[in-house]
Design a protein that fits this description.
By secondary structure, this protein is α/β, with parallel strands linked by helices. The strands form three sheets. It has an eight-stranded mixed sheet. A four-stranded mixed sheet has the order 6-5-7-11. Strands 8-10 form a two-stranded antiparallel ribbon.
Length: about 210
């Protein structure tokens, strides 16, 4: 069973529909006992980091997430859910994350400005080819250069040791990360067509 954590951030319909299409037993929940009973956890999210981490903390589930991942239970953070896995975010201030992935969440537009790159819109929104480490189990059903769908203004930085996939958008965007059994995708697999379904299928099997 996959527990999709509902902490009041984001529309969960497309994600749960994708998981059910793949035949996954899925529960959308904010209950500790459901997360403990589940085989895998997905942490979705859209919006602002500060608001999301506050809402997640308000559920009382942070300790449960940390305990279950410490035991090796697979977790997948998606979009803002991935960003919450990092040590801290610099989105409109400095905010502490869960610390499951070493690194920082930084502004795409600020880093583009520093790199003297212009002409690209932020938020970064649309389809981009993915480059990934060949031996990563999350990508065993897709091929190099397959495109995935992004919608974001901030991205993971200073996380080279955990980065397992990237895309190019003026600067190199961290597409996916992994630390042990903790995974994160900046892109939305549930909005990435057949490629995204194959990534979710692979997560079901890790």
């Amino acid at each position: 069973m996959i527990a999709v954590i509902d902490y009041g951030v984001g529309n969960l319909f497309s994600l749960t529909a994708s998981l059910k299409h793949l035949g996954a037993e899925t529960i959308v929940t904010n209950k500790k006992e459901d997360i403990i009973a589940a085989d895998k956890i997905i942490l979705p999210g859209v919006g602002a980091f500060e608001d999301a981490i506050a809402k997640l903390q308000a559920t009382g589930l942070v300790d449960t997430i940390m305990d279950e991942t410490a035991k090796g239970k697979p977790l997948l953070g998606i979009c803002l859910g991935m960003q919450l896995l990092f040590e801290e975010s610099h989105e409109y201030g400095v905010h502490k994350g869960l610390g499951l992935i070493k690194g920082t969440i930084a502004s795409i537009s600020e880093d583009m400005e520093d790199a003297k790159i212009s002409g690209l819109k932020v938020p970064h929104m649309g389809w981009n080819p993915l480059r990934f480490a060949e031996d990563e189990p999350l990508f065993k059903y897709i091929k190099q250069g397959d495109s995935v769908y992004y919608v974001h203004s901030f991205y993971g930085r200073d996380c080279k040791e955990s980065t397992i996939a990237t895309s190019e958008y003026g600067i190199t965007i961290t597409g996916a990360v992994r630390n042990g059994s903790v995974y994160g995708t900046q892109f939305h697999p549930e909005k990435s067509g057949g490629v995204g379904l194959n990534i979710l299928k692979a997560f079901m099997e890790v």
